[in-house]
């Protein structure tokens, strides 16, 4: 697990969009849960990396644009995709997209829909709402004037009520099985730049309410070494009730804080009684000369009928990862993509997507 480089930007450089007033309610009513990712979905939400302050290099920005359109067009073979972008950019973006991708006029700074997009909960009769966790640029480390409003804007367009759980943070900082259990790194939540004044127990209570869960398994994680403070979704992911797939280095480096934390998380999950399946990190990936590259096979996305997963150019571990995903998702097509530009900035396919449950 490597480090997403900090993008030091002015927080005032991008003014937030002006939206009509939306009635918001604190807390989430009983009976609502965030379904497991492999539950039926209405659509996938994605975001366009638009900010030239976040991505000043035109060539690299173009690589990110190609990567996002590749992911969107691939998912659109299986379910509708909503791509959020300022209306002024639609004429430029539209020719790159398949018919299954719809552009919505929601301005964005960056592409991380897992963190800034809408977390949608549902009850047994099918009512849905925004179980809102407020994105604040990973603790005000990056401009987020537009991104901080994406979740509300999507909920408004969908006609969903907004229930704010009083948390600052990112959905990518917690993973859940849809059956009552969450896993998270403390480093992404119990930290002053997200939730000052709240104890670990208070944060846990609010997260469990936000997801409709009963149990949260904490591991320590790593603070201050990457912009996310070590999101769990690039290390360990639920693939079923109490079943986890984790991505670990074949030869851990005891000097690397991420390797040490990854092993600690593995031990924590096993000791908590979860069934943990290990897949190795790639050894000979295409970006092996980039120290901060995130090469995580578990940063995959489950959509209707398919798993969209990264491949990194290591023939052996790419094959092992596909075999593992096929074991965990035997009734879904496994589709792999070269998403190296996302790895260069510390994320992956899961980080760039957020599901709207049916």
Describe the structure.
The protein is of the alpha/beta class and 358 residues long. The protein has one domain (24-357): L-arginine/glycine Amidinotransferase, Chain A (5-stranded Propeller), CATH 3.75.10.10. It is built from nine helices and 17 strands. The protein has helices spanning 58-75, 90-93, 113-116, 137-140, 150-158, 200-211, 257-271, 315-328, 340-344; strands spanning 24-26, 41-47, 81-85, 101-105, 120-122, 128-134, 161-168, 174-176, 181-185, 215-219, 236-240, 243-248, 275-280, 301-303, 306-310, 333-337, 354-357. The strands form five sheets. A four-stranded mixed β-sheet has the order 1-7-6-5. Strand 2, helix 1 and strand 3 (81-85) form a beta-alpha-beta unit. Mean pLDDT is 92; it is low at 1-22.
Quick gist of this model?
By secondary structure, the protein is α/β, with parallel strands linked by helices. Helices cover 24% and strands 24% of the residues. The longest helix has 18 residues, at 58-75.
């Amino acid at each position: 697990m490597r480090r997403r480089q900090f993008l030091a930007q002015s927080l005032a450089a991008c003014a937030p969009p002006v939206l009509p007033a939306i009635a918001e309610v604190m807390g989430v009513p009983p009976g609502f849960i965030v379904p497991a990712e492999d539950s039926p979905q209405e659509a996938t939400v994605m975001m366009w990396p638009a900010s030239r302050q976040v991505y000043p290099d035109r060539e690299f920005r173009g690589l990110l644009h190609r990567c996002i359109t590749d992911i969107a067009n691939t998912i659109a073979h299986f379910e509708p995709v909503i791509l959020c972008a300022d209306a002024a950019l639609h004429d430029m973006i539209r020719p790159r997209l398949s018919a299954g991708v719809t552009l919505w006029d929601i301005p964005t700074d960056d592409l991380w829909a897992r963190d800034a997009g809408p977390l949608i909960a549902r009850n047994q009769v099918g009512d849905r709402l925004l179980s809102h966790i407020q994105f604040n640029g990973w603790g005000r480390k990056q401009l987020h004037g537009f991104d901080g409003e994406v979740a509300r804007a999507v909920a408004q367009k969908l006609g969903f009520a907004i229930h704010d759980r009083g948390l600052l943070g990112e959905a990518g900082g917690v993973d859940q099985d849809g059956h009552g259990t969450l896993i998270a790194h403390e480093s992404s939540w119990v930290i002053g730049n997200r939730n000052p004044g709240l104890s670990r127990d208070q944060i846990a209570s609010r997260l469990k309410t936000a997801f409709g869960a009963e149990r949260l398994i904490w591991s320590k994680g790593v603070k201050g070494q990457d912009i996310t403070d070590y999101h769990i979704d690039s290390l360990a992911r639920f693939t079923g009730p109490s079943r986890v797939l984790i991505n670990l280095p074949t030869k851990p480096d005891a000097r690397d804080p991420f390797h040490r934390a990854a092993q600690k998380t593995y031990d924590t999950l096993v000791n908590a009684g979860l069934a943990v399946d290990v897949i190795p990190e790639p050894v000979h990936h295409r970006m092996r000369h980039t120290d901060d590259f995130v090469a995580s096979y578990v940063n995959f996305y489950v959509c209707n009928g398919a798993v969209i997963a990264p491949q990194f150019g290591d023939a052996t571990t790419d094959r092992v990862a596909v075999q593992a995903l096929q074991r965990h998702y035997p009734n879904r097509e496994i589709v792999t993509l070269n998403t190296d530009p996302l790895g260069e900035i510390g994320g992956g396919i899961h980080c760039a997507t957020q599901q709207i449950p049916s």
